Amino acid sequence: MSIADEIRTLDKILKEKNAELNTHKKARDKFHDNARDSQVKRDNFRRMAQDLMKVNSELKKERNRYNELTREAKSKREDIKIRIEELRADGVRDLDQLKAERDSYHRQVIEYHGKSQDIHARIEENSGKIDLYKNMSDQAHEQSLKFREAADREHQEFVRCLEEIRSIKDELPDDL
Known about the structure:
mainly alpha; rod-shaped
């Protein structure tokens, strides 16, 4: 084989290796883009979960406040109930004012308990969303890791091709 034939063969091999190099580079870059997209999704889902956790924290404070108001109203209602029973035992019959006050506290118990339950339902609903966002964040993170691994494999192939190209070029005579 003549030198010209060898040069043509090496040139052909170099073109093929450069094409392979570019293929690995494009694949690697695409995997990196996908990994970044997955990381953005992960971060968005994580942020959404954190935002809802903050909302739940505030809702829990509000629910606890209504629970305390419920306990206070129950306690006052029970105190009046005991007072009514004591007065009845003493023969007092005109207890309308105390009964009205007891009924007022009973309505407060119902109102505060209802508000507490409504808030608790919102907390539960948000908790379900938080779990969903956390799962979606975890999935996006796992996907990002898989893309990174694929990008690393493509990069290793890219480096291997680059080394082969350098090796081929090193075989060429210096005057070419």
